[in-house]
Amino acid sequence: MLAMRIINLFALLIVCEFSNASRWSPAVTNADLIKHLKRRGVLKSERVENVMSLVDRANYSKYNPYEDRPQSIGFGATISAPHMHAIALELLKDHLYNGSKALDIGSGSGYLTACMALMVAPNGKVIGIDHIPGLVRQSIKNIEKDQPELFKSGVIRMVVGDGRLGYLPEAKYDAIHVGAAAPKLPKHLVDQLKVGGRLIIPIGREGGIQTLYQIDKITNETIERTPLHGVAFVPLTDKESQVA
Ligand SMILES: *[C@@H]1O[C@H](CO)[C@@H](O)[C@H](O)[C@H]1NC(C)=O
Ligand SMILES: *[C@@H]1O[C@H](CO)[C@@H](O)[C@H](O)[C@H]1NC(C)=O
Ligand SMILES: *[C@@H]1O[C@H](CO)[C@@H](O)[C@H](O)[C@H]1NC(C)=O
After folding, report:
1. Atom of ligand 2 nearest to the CA of 55
2. Alpha-carbon dihedral of residues 129, 132, 136, 139, nearest 10 degrees?
3. pLDDT value for 2
4. Which residues belong to the signal peptide in this entry (predicted)?
């Protein structure tokens, strides 16, 4: 892993040399950001690359939209780092197809909800849920600027509510993404997952390091829990760090 990092860094240095960059410059376009995520190996599939290319992060994050770091979006909330969005979409992509139904809990800026919606369009539906009304209104404005057809076609719906309870009126879901850490796996979310569906959620003690879990519903009574060791959320600072 360390060796790979060093090789990556070396490759980056070579790219800088050849592009005659006088300083370490951050990504300045959405396309630059996509290139960075591919080079880093978090963006793997063409489908996720296409969707992240279509959704311009500048419409969702006022500050440094193309930097691979979480950013403040007001209301005491953050938009996750782009690599976290890429990881989530890669994990969920086989459950996000034309006609499938998804739930994005802690939808925040609306960025990931919009990406998911493009993946389930035209016949699917994604519900974004967040508990702060002002944040939900802002996310609707963001999506209307970036992907207005998603509202017209009814593929996306943003609601105010307590995401820990899921969203029963539209259950059950093929894919559920949780963008905030939970101390343990919420039963409501497992209940609202279809058999064959997948849930992605950071689980762990508050104030500690949390592990991203992949929960697959095998039958109505059985789930498979897969801890994804590579990623941990550090909730107190709202930062996410790679611990692999
Ligand atoms: C999406 O699914 C519907 C229903 O199965 C189908 O009629 C439609 O052609 C599909 N659209 C695309 C773009 O795949
Ligand atoms: C927002 O989205 C629109 C439509 O995709 C795009 O033209 C625009 O460049 C994006 N960025 C900003 C900062 O408005
Ligand atoms: C799955 O369990 C729920 C209750 O948890 C029940 O309502 C439903 O009928 C069950 N479905 C099947 C296919 O057994």
Report:
1. 5
2. -100
3. 39
4. 1-21
Angle at alpha carbon of residue 101, lines to 100 and 105, rounded to 5°: 140
CATH level 3 topology of 2-243:
Rossmann fold (3.40.50)
Ligand 1 pocket mutation pick from 50, 98, 119 by most atoms within 8 angstroms of CB: 98
Secondary structure element (H or E) that encloses residue 102, with its range: strand 101-105
pLDDT attached to residue 243: 34
Average pLDDT over residues 192-209: 89
List the catalytic residue out of 25, 72, 80, 153.
Answer: 80
- The percent of residues in the chain predicted with pLDDT above 90, rounded, is 75
- Ligand 1 pocket check for 120: Cβ under 6 Å: no
Which residues, other chains included, contact 197 with Cβ-Cβ below 8 Å and sequence gap of 6+?
95, 172, 173, 174, 175, 176, 216, 217
Mean pLDDT of the chain: 85
Strand partners, 234: 239
Active site residue 80: yes
- Burial group, residue 228, by CB count within 10 angstroms (0-12, 13-18, 19+): middle
Give the integer Cα–Cα distance in Å for 235 and 3.
Answer: 29
Token digits for 165? 């309870």
Measured in Å, residue 85 CA sits from the centre of ligand 1 at 26
